[in-house]
Amino acid sequence: MANKIKIITSFFPPEKGAASHRILTTAKELSSYGFDVSVITTLANYPTGKLFNGYKKMLYKKEEIEGIDCIRCWVFPSNSNNPIIRILSMLSYCFSLLFTIPSLFFNRPDIIFVQTPPLLPGITGVLISKLLRIKVVLNVSDIWPLTAVELGVMRHKSFSFRLFSRIENIMYGLSDAMIGQSNETCTYLKQKSDKPLLLYRNLTKPNFNQIVNEQDLSSKKKIVYAGLLGLAQGVSNICKNIDFKSLDIEFHIFGDGIEKILIEKFIQQNSECNIFLRQTIPKDEMQKKLLSYDATIISLTKNIYGAFPSKITMAIASGLPIFFSGDGEGFKIVDEFNLGYVSEAGNLNVLKKNLIEFSRLNHKQINLMKLNIMNVVEKEFNYVDQQSKLCKFISSLI
Question: What's the rounded mean pLDDT across residues 131-155?
Fold first, then answer.
């Protein structure tokens, strides 16, 4: 009989976003290696903060998502900026999780895999595991409440920071093992606990384009940005300060967010700027779409300690050179493995210099860059090897 793994998460498809996609990928890979995997999550509502069609007026729902059995619990959904309302929303899910205890008792999994953040459902999942004497693996995708401070939504040494730090430390201490998505996160976790720890990046399954002959390509180079158009990405500032037309480069933008209106307005006022705003498309479709571009821009205006941008793994999985504008581990990885060009957050002069250098390359030289990225992916960011390490790590705990 296959070993059972129960995943407790606040995000799961059909919800959009990196978190839900990452957990689904993990669940499917664990299942493909022979584990009996199922999920406990909320009624679908993220990121709108409103229950999706098909999930309204329900206390729970059983369904199957891409081969993974899923129980969805009632939640008071909200995407409000009011911290009290957000906490009430998380507490409602914590309350619902308590009603899963009988099911977990009579149909005991060998491992409970808990996703955090958010912290409150995370600590609830860990406490349920300890109550039932089931081993728990904590999957730490961001370091909260430290990330909240760096994002400016919480003050350091405030009452809320001290409270959530206490919850964080209890959660780490009670876990039987932990998983981190970056070297920075793993370093932080080692300082907090001596429990078994695995570095498990949010890698994307490779889908390399064939290297094509130079004469088969048009002369105009195309660069893509795919992702959130928020203040933390600063894409509108890139549009206003980089003259893509003079570089003879097309800049194609796929995404949505509060800066979308600013970008639309700029394009309307500068119709020949060589910048094109596209509609958001699903992640799987976007992964295929990347193959038709020469490079990608990944921009972050501030560094979040422990964060590793999923856009990097999407890009290298398509053999796409990266223009990384930001700091932290993303900068180090792109620079160390020669995955493209780097510039510090907000330093548009260096970004422009990098784009000028790229604009002078011929397609043969660009293809050599892509070949290097493919080799790096095979040796350093091998998708199959990572999934194997995850399964061996989980198996060692049973």
Answer: 89
Q: Identify whether the C-beta of residue 15 lies closer than 8 Å to the C-beta of residue 44.
A: yes
* Mean pLDDT of all residues in 207-223: 64
The residue to which tokens 């095979």 are assigned = 378
For the domain covering 4-203+382-397, report its CATH number.
3.40.50.2000
Quote the pLDDT of residue 213. Answer: 47
Q: How many CA atoms lie within 13 A of 293 on its CB side?
A: 27
In the chain, the largest separation of any two C-alpha atoms, in whole Å, equals 67
In SS3 terms, the chain reads as CCCEEEEECCCCCCCCCHHHHHHHHHHHHHHHCCCEEEEEEECCCCCCCCCCCCCCCCCEEEEEECCEEEEEECCCCCCCCCHHHHHHHHHHHHHHHHCCHHHHHHCCCCEEEEEECCHHHHHHHHHHHHHCCCEEEEEECCCCCHHHHHCCCCCCCCHHHHHHHHHHHHHHHHCCEEEECCHHHHHHHHHHCCCCEEECCCCCCCCCCCCCCHHHCCCCEEEEEECCCCCCCCHHHHHHHCCCCCCCEEEEEECCCCCHHHHHHHHHHCCCCCEEEECCCCHHHHHHHHHHCCEEEEECCCCCCCCCCHHHHHHHCCCCCEEEECCHHHHHHHHHCCCEEEECCCCHHHHHHHHHHHHCCCHHHHHHHHHHHHHHHHHHCCHHHHHHHHHHHHHHHC
Q: Which two tokens stand for residue 152?
A: 């400016």
CATH 3.40.50.2000 domain residues, the chain: 4-203+382-397, 214-380
Looking at the structure, give the CATH architecture of the domain made up of residues 214-380.
3-Layer(aba) Sandwich (3.40)
Give residue-wise pLDDT tens across range 30-79. 999 999 999 999 999 987 889 999 999 899 999 999 999 999 999 999 88
